[in-house]
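Interim report to the steering committee. The following record documents the input for DUF385 domain-containing protein (121 residues).
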Amino acid sequence: MLKHTINPIALRAARSGRGPFSLVRHVGRTTGTVFETPLILAEVPQGFVAELTYGENVSWYRNVVAAHGRCTIIRGGATFAIDRMDRLETAAGMRAFGAPRNLILRLLRRREFRLLHVAGR
């Protein structure tokens, strides 16, 4: 459902550099096709923090894991090469998003966060 409703709007917002969305550009693990997935990411000194709203069984996440943590983030018109992805403690993930977003994440009982490291940081 999201693929055909919210995602097209989020893709346009992310590509324009406005709004809360970033794009994760990743390569399909079986097709080799390049995909762009809109996500809300928190920027931290090492890179970006992603909250896994739908868990580890989503295509973008599985594709990045298959690519050994490599993907590209497009945020505000800038492009960032990601060279690895690590699990992040829940408390650190919550802190990365800051108030009031971390309050919403707590209310929704979100616990799964990943740190996407920008190459060279």
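The beta strands are 21-27, 34-44, 47-51, 71-75, 78-88, 113-118. The committee is asked to note this result when reviewing the revised timeline.
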